[in-house]
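[09:14] KT: can someone run the structure on this one? pasting the chain below
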Amino acid sequence: MKLFANILILFFLTSCATIVNDANVPVTLSFSDGSSGTCNLSNKRAQYKVDVPGTSQIRRSDDALKYDCKTAGGKTAFGSIPSEMEGAKLAGSVVFFDLGITDSITDKHRTYTPNFTIPVK
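[09:31] RB: done, structure tokens below
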């Protein structure tokens, strides 16, 4: 019985980020010149059309968040925001022996910079 209880506890503690983290992360975007406009955002999990400045809920992914933007004045900008790994979630995965397998499938251990200024010229 004790062995079964220990296995059950380990099962519920695996995939820490998958259990704790939401699938989406808020990202606030603004243009460097203070103007407004729209951006098309994409990663391997989702695509969005968002208004800038503003905050959007973006699906976590292990690849960069690509942006293609146009300001109200007609200026354009494109580039990407790198995906980062949450270190505490990685450490938790190692401690609880799942080695991040489930988290690597769901990408819930990844995040994007919460505030990003898009450079426009």
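[09:33] KT: thanks! Residues 11 and 63 are 28 Å apart (CA to CA).
[09:34] RB: yep, looked fine to me
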